[in-house]
From TrEMBL, chains A, B, C, D:
It comes from Dyella psychrodurans. It comes from the Bacteria. Reduced FMN (FMNH(2)). The gene is aroC. This is Chorismate synthase. The keyword NADP applies.
Length: 362, 362, 362, 362
């Protein structure tokens, strides 16, 4: 199976480099009959887009999605859906001076070691530009999951550097450019980011993503566990260094009597598990959290070597987010959606549709 | 692809329930000519075995591996290697009272919801018993990686409940039953565990695992990243709720100038990345860390429901570890080994063997 | 994905060598709740078994299937079903003189070239012994397809050397040891085979297999077509050199006006297509035909070379069928069943269960 | 894995409908460093193109390939290669009258039954238009196989209706628009086709394809056999109803003493096996043959039903080949190339590169 594909039954294959002619994806396995049009992609692509605020990269991308196949008269036909976005704002000259240099913290060196050749323009294939297509593909997954099962997937920025939310309100999340769940902190965050940019440095972030309405029974033991697949999908996002399900690393210091989620006749009394037990959804909210490292492209010079092994100092010019995590929320949602979509189909393959098998407990 | 399989080219498929007749695995894709015999499995299976100390489950398993295929005159032939271990110590009666009850924190409920039927004996397929076969399969992977590339994979217990190591020495790890890297703390840990068992409760743990000697270039963008595959593999271990690569969640509060690993002519000066950039190995130590939740099977009664929806109190008798993390070290090593083995083969498929492509930088 | 696995969702992985300790398989993806017991395997294994008549190899195999996992209280649980058959009648000494020789027409040479090592006992992994597990796995597939959709799969010997049936009656097929559809010819076939054995030579055969009751809609364009998957599955049977769907090679000299199957209000008027159009089932009988080459293991000496390149004459002693095609019927049925089972699950993954999507035409 | 993908390691995913905006493919797993440019595609696309002679469909397609990704400065980078061809000559109105009708012998009915919706324009996804991308992708495979291993893949038309070649000369094949291997017959073939077109009918064809220079050892038992994968790949070509390897169905009536290929010190003395034994290449020419049914789109009216089940007569206007087999030669070559490319990579994954394992026999 292609390493540029994700999903076993709802299979998304992405292609494209940051500064090549285009990026795109092919979605195979989509159920037929789903209504879809190019407008459907705009909201989430805008949420992900660079340039949405002064705190993210100033590269402006039109991100106009063209549907090349798989949709007829506004409905999916069951054949592969190809989506294409032309790259229209490639200032390759910005990257001219890194052609012969390995930027610290970047994939420059590893691509070079692996392939003996790399497209240095904007990071080539390793650029976060690729995540645009994940978001686009996930628009379809989100729509189907919502229409058929009432699944709602949404995320927020749960930590920005050392700052954590002092309150929580889902309504606030979409009201500010940080996806921050506590509106009163937003002005302080803006100052924080301004100072950071001035310093030429960057910070990491944490993003949480929830899926509500997931029926019990999605996920496949042992190596197709829902949490295992989520871990792979989330870790594949650029800059992610850690993934948690439910309480995650907090579980290390917990007691069993504290962590286990007890059940009553009307359901679970807590959700330390993050909605997954034994790799299968419990019917509670599926909850994941990811750690994103600070942007490696910063204005503070760093030591590195060039292609002939000589020491060089690297300053990354170009347009870069001082915190890549800020626009990671829609991407994390996208990966959650793709994994759930895949497991929805996998579940009904083996077990029939949700509700076909009727255990004695509702 | 089977959900009970892991690995694209070095594919391990496991089968078996905790209290069924046997557990086993089929390993497909192993390079031919590797010398292997049944003795090879003993060390790691003993390291993983329950009953190795009074702090782990008292179930005694002979864990005698039988090689059913794929090995001729002591060498792998390239055909599938099937390994079988008979279950010899199944005290199913221990589990009789949970047949009609969902134990909190267990997969009982989710298997029931998914399949409408479950094998309740010892957790059936969701038991950690399955990990025995991962360890067995990984013995072969470890051996090939060591012989061909000099890769060394080893792990240790990095946290037990709230206790962390106060020193570090690889030599200590194998000298105590906790895989603890600081010998002087071991007596205190034993007291800690005795008190825990007396209380009827359990704790979580953190396990770290390192792979040294991994050549640069292993891992495949975008959805076959080395860290993505590690995340899936490690998250698939029973009770794991979090995975980190390198600095993991610590990266959230770091600055870019601090996190990025600079390079000099003689290599990297730090390893915050955990040996992976852009999903591809850098040539440094590949480092992962996992969080294991506290054992859900505890003697303290918990609220739950039975198959007909009535409230019940559950006390898990039977033999259980008060900390499943204690014997997770060899399992984490196993998953690291299986992922690296798979990527070693994937790399040489696309790029030829290590060193065939010769970038200008060593 | 493992090369010793077949099927995307109903995945069967086989292992084992002809003269190793055992052969077996792991079936992953089976729907839960199907009743199954060891007796279920006997009929088809007996049909396939060597030793069923004097015209097939005299090796006697008990072929007792042990169910190692995935079945609880007589029902499938949704977890992997492992089946094991011990090899009890390995007369390895029969093969002693071919250890250093490549038998013409056998896989001896190619395994040697590929792996640099081979298990020469009875052909090792390349022996038709492996097909026992296909038949066993297919028992489960046949049962599920029959119970859920009323699918009936059956085959017959359609040509033996130059002899073709002079009549056709499904009832006759199971009444003779050739799976021959015209009883009056059976005595002549027995004489034919006796003469053939006396001559020390062998012949090829053609086997046809039909699946009735397959609903329209199974099969996935473009590279998961039902006929494409059937072709792979049938070609993977030992000695098969050709596969046809429907009219097969006869279509070459046909006219379009003759070949195309017209439709009336009550269905198709012919079935030249073999029940598949565009890779998807039409609802008619799915029909495939295979060519099996003559057994390569014959008593007539053949020229070959040994491991050091010297010319040798090879006479294959041991127990061999003068026509491998005679017992290929149950194997061809098995592959048809495995492919249909896989596509039944794939169809309901993407499109819901049969009948969920309701086109306006019944 | 996507059903619109072929190949395990050299994975080609195609997308697009006959009359949609574009067709395209994504090639994942290509070794880095291969020189490639848009001109490389022209020869084979022209060979496949409709409109190349008056005997094939008169639709004229520019078939200008755009490389969207994976190539930098004229060399493959190891990242996915996306190829795009815009559809520029879609006369959808030609198909207006078949929107509500199922054409006999076409996939109209089965797509409708499977998906409940279909793109009727030119057959949509089921059109042979899709094979353009196979040919394009195979250009890369052919080039790599030729440069690295000296593999040469070429095919020819081996039967046209009832006409077979009366001589054979590889040089002739590319000199006529039929890919016919015997030049003197070409004028007669042209008359044959003219008469056929005048009659409004169509005929089937047989295409043979050879691969020379394939090293011994490619192919993987049991379900990844080289012949099994070839069978699937060739059967997936539109209109193919049969596949043979080597002697194919002729083997049915052969004797073992006649079929088996004997070996001498300087190699095999015959090639009835078609270069494959036990699913693995022998080092001889790999030889396959396919049967293509007569075009279903003919001017002679046929009985069918419409979407509401009423009987209708169908006449397929539009532009259609009276023998689809005429331009199938480059497509068959393409599928042979894709399968061999995939197995070249699979072989070096498990066994190292060709020649790394050195059996004692050359």
């Amino acid at each position: 199976m292609s390493s540029n594909s994700t999903g076993k039954l709802f299979t998304v294959t992405t292609f494209g480099e940051s500064h090549g002619p285009a990026i795109g994806c092919v979605i195979d396995g989509c159920p037929p009959g789903l209504s879809i049009d190019v407008e459907a992609f705009r909201t989430d692509l805008d949420r992900r887009a660079t340039g949405r605020s002064r705190h993210t990269s100033q590269r402006r991308e039109a991100d106009e999605v063209e549907i090349l196949s798989g949709v007829y008269q506004g409905r999916t036909t069951g054949t592969p859906i190809a989506l294409l976005i032309r790259n229209t704002d490639q200032r390759s000259k910005d990257y001219g001076d890194i052609v012969d240099t390995f930027r610290p913290g970047h994939a420059d060196y590893t691509y070079w070691q692996k392939y003996g050749i790399r497209d240095p323009r904007g990071g080539g294939r390793s650029s976060a530009r690729e995540t645009t297509m994940r978001v686009a593909a996930a628009v379809i997954a989100k729509k189907w999951l919502a229409e058929r099962y009432g699944v709602l997937i949404r995320g927020y920025l749960a930590q920005l550097g050392e700052v954590t939310p002092e309150g929580f309100d889902w309504d606030a999340v979409e009201q500010n450019s940080f996806f921050w769940p506590h509106e009163p902190q937003v002005p302080a965050l803006e100052k924080y980011m301004d100072a950071l940019r001035k310093s030429g440095d960057s910070v990491g972030a944490r993003v949480n993503v929830d899926a509500e309405g997931v029926p019990p029974g999605w996920g496949e033991p042992i190596y197709g566990k829902l949490d295992g697949d989520l871990a792979a999908a989330l870790m594949s996002i650029n800059a992610v260094k850690g993934v948690e399900i439910g309480d995650g690393f907090d579980a290390v210091a917990q007691r069993g009597s504290q962590h286990r989620d007890e059940m009553h006749m009307d359901g679970f009394t807590s959700n330390h598990a993050g909605g997954i037990l034994g790799g299968i959804s419990t019917g509670q909210v599926v909850r994941a959290s990811i750690a994103l490292k600070p942007t490696s492209s910063i204005l503070i010079p760093g030591h590195s070597v060039n292609l002939v092994g000589e020491p060089v100092d690297v300053v990354t010019k170009g347009r870069h987010d001082p915190c890549v995590g800020i626009r990671a929320t829609p991407i994390a949602e996208a990966m959650m959606a793709l994994v759930l979509m895949d497991h929805a189909l996998r579940h009904r393959a083996q077990c029939g549709d949700v509700g076909e098998i009727k255990p004695r407990i509702p």
